[in-house]
Write a structure and sequence with these properties.
It is built from eight helices and twelve strands. The chain has about 300 residues and is α+β, with helices and mostly antiparallel strands. The chain folds into two domains: about 80 residues, no CATH class; about 210 residues, Endonuclease/exonuclease/phosphatase (Deoxyribonuclease I, Chain A, 4-Layer Sandwich), CATH 3.60.10.10. The strands form two sheets. It has a six-stranded mixed beta sheet with strand order 3-4-2-1-12-11, with no helix packed on it. A hairpin with an 8-residue loop joins strand 11 and strand 12. It is elongated.
Length: about 300
């Protein structure tokens, strides 16, 4: 009986270890695979509880078995909490961007717009711009930014001239993506603002298709310097993220995992800033009033000429 109890703890620890290392190989049935991908960093939570229970039940071998998932988690996700660089003050010649899903049911869109303007960012990429939110957000941001580009429910406000704006396809029946040129003092830049389809328990294929379509566009874009900002509805640990847009760097936070959703207690990073041909000099995540997503922000520099 005692041997059986120990085996239960060892098996539970082994299962957690397996899920941490191979979560993206679990079949995605009814969205469970993608949900497991998103939850992967949180699989550490039951480990100390399992260890304590093993000690209480006097199963030392079971408690020792919990070391394995702890080490695997530390190796896989622990680096997220280790600073990669010291956040630098903004330097001359750099550009700062903030990306924010405004939230279609936002009850205070004007407060969100004022908070966005107060960031002082050079570029503001917004998603879910529509309905009654559109007019107050436009009015407030237009007062601080001379250039605005919109396509459907996404928009870009810029301190620098924009041109040649087109729709970016994200695999959905209405416009939720744009591509535009931005003429910064440091050089020309192509900016995408995107909002990928949502993931639902019965439908992850639509999101996956949107990622593939957008990835093909980005891979074939001839621009040497590209920024992609938006709500990808895709966690950093998602099985589809590894193969998305090779050659781009996710300008994630310098300290911490940079989770962005839900805003009150974020558990996943669904919003991303991707760079190609640019160097990140600083990054963070902001919580602004109103939206259900937090806002990733990054400062980047152009390569030396």
């Amino acid at each position: 009986m005692r041997r059986t109890g120990t085996l239960v703890f060892v098996a539970a620890a082994a299962l957690l270890t397996l899920l941490m290392t191979a979560h993206d190989r679990i079949p995605d049935i009814f969205g469970l695979g993608v949900a497991l991908d998103t939850a992967a960093p949180w699989l550490i939570v039951p480990v100390p509880l399992l260890a304590v229970l093993a000690v209480v039940c006097r199963r030392p071998a079971g408690a020792a078995a919990c070391i394995a998932p702890l080490l695997v988690w530390a190796y896989t996700f622990g680096s997220w909490w280790a600073p990669t660089a010291t956040a630098a003050a903004r330097e001359a010649g750099t550009v700062t961007v903030v990306s924010q899903n405004l939230f279609a049911d936002n009850s205070t869109p004007a407060a969100t717009a004022r908070a966005l303007a107060a960031t002082g960012a050079d570029l503001l990429a917004v998603q879910e711009l529509g309905g009654t939110d559109r007019a107050p957000v436009q009015r407030i941001l237009d007062a601080s930014y001379p250039y605005r580009e919109e396509r459907g429910t996404v928009a870009l406000w810029s301190r620098f001239p924009t041109s040649d704006t087109t729709v970016a396809d994200v695999g959905i029946g209405w416009q939720r993506g744009l591509r535009t040129h931005v003429a910064t003092p440091s050089g020309d830049l192509v900016v995408y603002v995107v909002h990928l389809p949502s993931v639902r328990p019965t439908d992850t294929a639509t999101r996956n298709r949107g990622l593939r379509i957008l990835s093909d566009q980005l891979d074939s874009d001839p621009a040497p310097r590209v920024l992609v900002a938006g709500d990808f509805n895709t966690a950093s640990t998602d099985r589809e993220w590894r193969s998305f847009a090779a050659g781009f760097t996710d300008a994630g936070p310098q300290v911490g995992p940079g989770f962005t959703w839900p805003a009150a207690f974020p558990v996943a990073r669904l919003d991303h800033l991707l760079l190609r041909g640019l160097t990140r000099t600083g990054s963070a995540v902001l919580r602004l009033p109103g939206p259900d997503h937090r806002a990733p922000t990054a400062t980047f520099a152009f390569p030396a000429r």
